[in-house]
Amino acid sequence: MEQFLGDGWKVHPAGGATGEAYIAQQGEQTVFLKRNSSPFLAVLSAEGIVPKLLWTKRLENGDVVTAQKLIQGRELKAFEMKENRVAALLSKIHGSSELLDMFKRIGNQPLTPYVIVENLRRQLQAYHIEDETIEAGMTYLFEMLESVRHEHYVVCHCDINHNNWMLDEEDHLYLIDWDGATVSDPALDLGLLLYSYIPKQDWEAWLSQYGIQLDPSLRGRMHWYVVSQSISVLLWHFGRQQFEEVQQLKLYIESLLKE
């Protein structure tokens, strides 16, 4: 990476799960580099959803490196997820026709409930898992398939953990790490956020800041996506033999199915 940038640049890994992110410094200039980042980073930057994109370059091996402004900020705390600005930014993302058009142009197919259930079924077969809690969860997902059909698709981030929400030095809020984003029902993002961070008695107020009302359809769809996502995360931990996390998620799924 240093040879690619030229003389005087010092490059250090920036951490993260993929190992593809770096901090590069040359004198007073510091940038955030990422190899093979999201192909719609330019749109996200133009809309102020991620820190400013400075340049994009293709390496000889075909990899693409992007450079963004390195913000001297901080991650949101869990309790800050209830704030108006979080609801406003997620509403802006879900309402962006530019983002949705970009996804469609690169051939992204919507992540429908049917696709989710089929993916989970294949994973369960591959792992040869037989478990009452997971079977009960899958039965619920199958039985509710028709009732959670929704025709309005948006770009969903799919990982709205508070660690991905960043405040810069000027208190501007960004949502970073778009590698897992897809086109789906906005209830996917909304359910994960509300169930993780917002007390149920505050859901209606939070959603009014986002710009919609909490009706039975939205409530049911959010619950469905949270159950499906919980099973997916459980399988991720199972594949890595992290059985303590698997047990915690089983208990969580059991509590969801009692609602």
Automatic annotation (TrEMBL):
Organism superkingdom: Bacteria
Aminoglycoside phosphotransferase domain location: 14-223
Keyword annotations: Transferase
Keyword Lipid biosynthesis annotated: no
Sample GO molecular function, one term: transferase activity
Matching InterPro entries: Aminoglycoside_PTrfase (IPR002575), CcrZ_PhaseVar_Mediator (IPR052077), Kinase-like_dom_sf (IPR011009)
Protein name (database record): Aminoglycoside phosphotransferase family protein
Naturally occurring in which organism (per UniProt): Halalkalibacter akibai (strain ATCC 43226 / DSM 21942 / CIP 109018 / JCM 9157 / 1139) (Bacillus akibai)
